Amino acid sequence: GRHVPVGVVDNGLADALAHAAVATGKVLSTLNRDGSFTLALFNLGPDTASIKFDWRELDALRDTTFAQHPPTLTDLVTQQPVPTPTNEINFTLDSHASRVFRLTPAH
Fold it and tell me: What is the rounded CA–CA span in Å between residue 22 and residue 4?
């Protein structure tokens, strides 16, 4: 799979999705009031696809330090912790599937 650009959302995920460009994969992030982030991954294509990006991409957009100190990932649907990849997020999603995570910065 190819790297997917990370989008920054400041007016809510629903608003961003309403204006999202059609592409195979989409990654959106928003800062929460508690300092955590919501990260949403979408496969908008007709086939299973890898949705991946490097922590440095999010760091550049959000002034975070996830590349040096990866955050804790929690799946917001299952409320289960997800092993945090060190360098790159890479999830395989079925056609038109999505995953939503909370990223809690390491302190």
Answer: 12
Sign of CA pseudo-dihedral 38, 3, 11, 106? positive
Question: What is the tens place of the pLDDT at every residue in 12-50?
Answer: 554 444 444 445 678 888 889 999 999 899 888 889 988
pLDDT in tens, 41-92: 988 888 998 888 888 888 888 888 999 999 999 999 999 999 988 888 888 9
Q: Based on the number of CB atoms within 10 Å of its own CB, is 53 exposed (0-12), middle (13-18) or buried (19 or more)?
A: buried
Amino acid code (one letter) for 7 = G
Largest CA distance in the chain: 40
Burial of 80 (0-12, 13-18, 19+ CB in 10 A): exposed
Helix residue spans in 11-106 (DSSP H): 13-18, 55-62
CB atoms within 10 A of CB 88: 13
Q: Quick one: tokens of 56?
A: 């440095």
